[in-house]
Amino acid sequence: MMKYVSGFQKLVIKAIILMMIVVILSSTLEIGWIILSDLVNPPVMFLNVKEVLDIFGLFFLVLIGIELLETIKMIINESTLNVDVIILVGITAIVRKVMIIDLKTTPPMFLVGMGILVIALAGAYYLINKSGKEFRCELK
């Protein structure tokens, strides 16, 4: 029975990797298309602040996708999951959200929550690195 469960897990992981590759590739092509179309439309060779923020948000989405793909590869190759890598993916996602946030329309409590989340993730990452130990989850 466990042999079938293990085979199913491997099949799901391979499907996730394939889907992640498709999403990362299509997102990268979309970023290129957006930059190209924004640069050729009047005013030529200029991007306004909103366009730049949107493009940076898309860059961070691609980076998050690459980090997730790297994490999945690590799970397959080593059957372990590094906690610090997961925290870094979380920090990257929060940074992306902070960069594209509209302060005029965002509720204050949301901003407080984001600040607490940034402090918690940064503190966890600091403590993990300061300890000098490797925090890994063994996956079997």
UniProtKB/TrEMBL annotation:
Keyword terms of this UniProt record: Cell membrane, Membrane, Transmembrane, Transmembrane helix
GO cellular component: plasma membrane
Places the protein is found: Cell membrane
Keyword flag Transmembrane: yes
Transmembrane residue ranges: 12-36, 52-69, 81-101, 107-128
Name of one Pfam family that matches: PsiE
Membrane topology reported for the UniProt record: Multi-pass membrane protein
Chief location category: membrane
Keyword Transmembrane: yes
Protein name, UniProt field: Putative membrane protein
Organism of origin: Methanomethylovorans hollandica (strain DSM 15978 / NBRC 107637 / DMS1)
